[in-house]
Amino acid sequence: MLCWLNRLHGALPAPTGRIAHLRPSSLRRRLALSSQRRIPEFSSFVARTNTCGELRSSHLGQEVTLCGWIQYRRQNVFLVLRDSHGLIQVVIPQDESAASVKKILCEAPVESVVRVSGTVISRPPGQENPKMPTGEIEIKVKTAELLNSCKKLPFEIKDFVKKTEALRLQYRYLDLRSFQMQYNLRLRSQMVMKMREYLCNLHGFVDVETPTLFKRTPGGAKEFVIPSREPGKFYCLPQSPQQFKQLLMVGGLDRYFQVARCYRDEGSRPDRQPEFTQIDIEMSFVDQTGIQSLIEGLLQYSWPSDKDPVVVPFPSMTFAEALASYGTDKPDTRFGMKIVDISNVFRNTEVGFLQDALSKPQGTVKAMCISEGAKYLKRKDIESIRKFAADHFNQEVLPIFLKANRNWNSPVAKSIMEEQRSGLTRLMEIQEDDVVLLTAGEHKKACSVLGKLRLECADLLEARGLVLRDPALFSFLWVVDFPLFLPKEENPEKLESAHHPFTAPHPSDVQLLYSEPEKVRSQHYDLVLNGNEIGGGSIRIHDAELQRYILAELLKEDVKLLSHLLQALEFGAPPHGGIALGLDRLICLVTGAPSIRDVIAFPKSFRGHDLMSNAPDSLPPEELKPYHIQVSWPADSEAEKSSLNQPYCPES
Ligand code: ASP
Questions:
Q1: Could you tell me if 607 and 614 are in contact, meaning their C-beta atoms sit under 8 angstroms apart?
Q2: What is the mean pLDDT of residues 290-300?
Q3: 432, 565, 444, 538: which is closest to 482 by C-alpha?
Q4: Would the pTM of this model clear 0.85, i.e. be above it?
Q5: Which residues pair with 533 in a beta bridge?
């Protein structure tokens, strides 16, 4: 049952049976010893001799003291005690002389905290529990103490008991007692520890903390604003330590890393948090391959030993190829269903919308083959896929079912000529029972639509029982050769940085900056895992003139906001580059958790609230005065205004 805990903690230390009151000299010795040991001492410094999960038959006869929560009680005879290391069965004494111990253990409500002392004994033959790591033994209790009682719980502390996420977040401290949350947070801590070891001890990185009260950075994500006591002046919470890490390179730190908290005021998205953690890295005198090898080594070194080992080097794909074949810059390469350009097959088509698209200068026809789709997908599935494309992308999608009799079943089957059929079959290697989805339009749009449908179809096929994405498989991919700039979404005439404005252009494209900047490739790289972007970075611009030109002339940003950085680059800034790994997302994928909130101890809700403490919260006007700010209440927010005096009611 608790094999994950055993895996996580590894082999446990040999039993000592000692009482945890240590004299200073032995404490010093223990500390010195434990710093050399690989196996941690889980019971040092505390009022227990052992953890609940560590006792085995080899401990038989030992006198032990355990502390933990009452998980459940059976017929007032047995009690199962839990701590962060596992479960153990405790036998409640039944004899008169131990009446007070029995009273404590029988009356304390479930989830109360107790300390028990007694002897490790073997369970009577036939009563062993092979599913429990401690299932061969039990504790014959001599003394018991109620350390704290537990009142009626809002939900049972059992992983299989269903509870809403809102309730879990409201009582997060109880939710954290679940095995799953314990596992996720401990695995996270262990991976971070290994990363520190790899970076600092094996590769000479320096862990430097950078400020969280900072100023606005032009471009990029929306930042949280913090009022200051100076009228009209505000700090911003940094979206990442980007400027500081570059300045540390100018300062000669050479190799920086930080487990950095970052903040982005980007509204609610299921896989994002307004505050999140990055493993932030910067190095001097490095190129793209140097950073990539470092990260491959880092992940290999810190990867949990109970997962399949990470295989390096990771494959690499250009941004252009990712878009053309997968319709996204973060392809899930665990399965095929690649997008194929079939424009040439349909040059002389009679199908209206294909003809229409191909008559335009940038027009293309794209297709994707869902192998065995006809076996698994129903007509209504295809209809919902078409509706999805129409509703979300205003894009027509045409299905073709290839039947066993080789007949094509499609709304436009009659209009597809024989040579088009054979051309398509050859190009896409279509087989019996496959379904082909066709769409047409400008390259990026058509690919993006099919990219989204590829994932939708994968979900549908898996819901019908086909395994496309092996849950044990970790498919890493570098995406490289991004464009330096993209057209701004709200104003496509203007450019914005594809990564951030400090990213260096590809050395062979520098001249294009002055003629066709939209064609310049960058030295930006993203790391993708199973279709999720888990990291991104770049080689930076270390030439002040080039940085100024890009900011002022191409991005039309106010260079004054970055004058400190531009100045620093003029004082002998070394060539440098770096990357940041999104720690929450990485741990979420490693643990297989359904959401990044499951790997963060105290996450914000979907709407960015802390449901436990009710942050963000209102402040009375007099507390806002020192900051020279006033709330201008929107017209329809009477309710919010009056909530200043209302008790807190969490979102559901
Ligand atoms: N600061 C960047 C980010 O947060 C990462 C980097 O370029 O190193 O995406």
A1: no
A2: 98
A3: 538
A4: yes
A5: 528
DSSP codes joined into one string, 232-284 = T-EEE--SSSHHHHHHHHHTT--EEEEEEEEE------TT--SEEEEEEEEEE
Q: Which of 237, 240, 243, 288 to mutate to test the pocket of ligand 1 (most atoms within 8 A of CB)?
A: 240
Where residue 372 falls (left for φ over 0; alpha for ψ -120 to 50; beta otherwise) is left
- Which residue owns the Cα nearest ligand 1 atom 7? 537
Torsion of CA 507, 508, 514, 515, to 10 degrees: -160
Is residue 409 over pLDDT 80? Answer: no
- According to DSSP, residue 461 is labeled H
Predicted confidence (pLDDT) at residue 586 exceeds the cutoff of 90: yes
Which of 168-172, 241-245, 469-473 is predicted with the least confidence, judged by mean pLDDT? Answer: 469-473
- Burial class from Cβ neighbours inside 10 Å (0-12, 13-18, 19+) for residue 173 reads exposed
Residue 243 Cα to ligand 1 middle (Å):
10
Q: Which of 319, 303, 276 is nearest to 498 (CA)?
A: 319
Please state the atom number of ligand 1 nearest to the C-alpha of residue 502: 7
Question: Looking at the predicted structure, is the pLDDT value of residue 372 above 60?
Answer: yes
pLDDT for 103 = 97
Checking phi first, is residue 394 left (phi over 0); if not, alpha (psi -120 to 50) or beta? Answer: left
Q: Which amino acid is at 178?
A: S
Task: Kindly indicate the confidence band of residue 264, based on its pLDDT and cuts at 50, 70 and 90.
Answer: very high
CA of 579 to the centre of ligand 1 (A): 6
> 107 C-alpha to center of ligand 1: Å?
55
Nearest CA to ligand 1 atom 6: 537
pLDDT at residue 279 in the model: 98
CB 438 within 8 A of CB 341: no
Residue 616 in this model has a pLDDT that exceeds 90: yes
- pLDDT tens for 107-144 read 999 999 999 999 999 999 999 999 999 999 999 999 99
Residue 356: CB atoms within 10 A of its CB come to 14
Chain Cα centroid distance, residue 628: 38
Is 261:303 a contact under the CB 8 Å cutoff?
A: no
Residue 104 pLDDT: 97
pLDDT band at 406 (very low <50, low <70, confident <90, very high): low
Best of 275, 279, 280, 283 for a ligand 1 pocket test (most atoms within 8 Å of beta carbon)? 280
Cα of 544 from ligand 1 centre, angstroms: 19
Ligand 1 is surrounded, with C-beta below 6 A, by 240, 242, 536-538, 578-580
Q: Which residues on adjacent β-strands are paired with residue 442?
A: 363
Range among 10-24, 347-361, 392-406 with highest mean pLDDT value: 347-361
CA 393 to centroid of ligand 1, rounded, Å = 30
580 Cα to the center of ligand 1, angstroms: 5
For ligand 1, atom 1, name the residue with the nearest CA: 242
Pairing of strands 206-207, 255-263: parallel
Q: How far is the CA of 497 from the centre of ligand 1 (A)?
A: 12
For atom 4 of ligand 1, the residue with the nearest CA is: 240
Q: Cα–Cα distances in Å, from 600 out to 97, 277, 603, 605?
A: 47, 9, 6, 11
pLDDT above 60 for 642: no
Q: Which atom of ligand 1 is nearest to the CA of 524?
A: 7
**Is the pLDDT score of 584 beyond 50?**
yes
- The predicted model gives 535-540 an average pLDDT of 98
**Cα(559) to centroid(ligand 1), Å:** 20
pLDDT of residue 17: 34
Question: Region 537-554: what's the mean pLDDT?
Answer: 97
